[in-house]
Amino acid sequence: MEPRYDTLFHDGQCPLCAREVRALRRLNKGNLVLADIHQQRNGSLILPPHEMLLRRLHLMTWTGEWVTGLHATVRAWSHTPFGFLFKPLLWPGIYQIASPVYQLWADRRYERKYACAECDAG
User: Fold this and answer.
1) Distance between CA atoms of 34 and 102, rounded to whole angstroms?
2) Where are the beta strands (DSSP E) in 11-111?
3) What b-and-e string marks burial along 5-29, b requiring 16 or more CB atoms within 10 Å of the CB?
4) Beta strand residue intervals within the chain, DSSP E
5) Which pLDDT tens digit goes with each residue over 21-46?
6) What confidence category does residue 55 fall into, taking pLDDT thresholds of 50, 70 and 90?
7) What span, in angstroms and rounded, lies between the C-alpha atoms of 42 and 27?
């Protein structure tokens, strides 16, 4: 049977992201690849645009399907012994609260880290 690897694309320049990635790397059962967005080649045919990758957490499943946001978080943590702790984030009721909170946090993180850099460049 061929190994099945998911790939999590993360912002290697984000301290909070780096902390989570360190934990995932340490706890990973071996079938999750961790890829720093900043080390990916621009213009790749399979990757979403760079800005999209920075705005939301993206995970490409072993079948080539893309999942983002909380779904990507839960899928990434499912590769560790603690995955069961993250599954409730996708339950009805909890997801309706957690998803907008994640999106608000992700938007603010992106604006603080990258929006000012874009203004300076323009």
Assistant:
1) 20
2) 32-36, 58-60, 66-68
3) ebebbbbeebeebeebbeebeeebe
4) 6-10, 32-36, 58-60, 66-68
5) 999 999 999 999 999 999 987 666 68
6) very high
7) 30
pTM: 0.86
Cβ atoms 74, 89 nearer than 8 A: yes
Q: Tell me, what amino acid is at 84?
A: F
Of the candidates 34, 70, 64, 69, the residue with the CA atom closest to the CA atom of residue 52: 69
Count of residues making up the chain? 122
> How far are the Cα atoms of 4, 34, 41, 72, 112 from residue 65, in angstroms, in the given order?
13, 16, 20, 11, 29
Structure tokens at 83: 């995955």
Structure tokens at 10: 């993360």
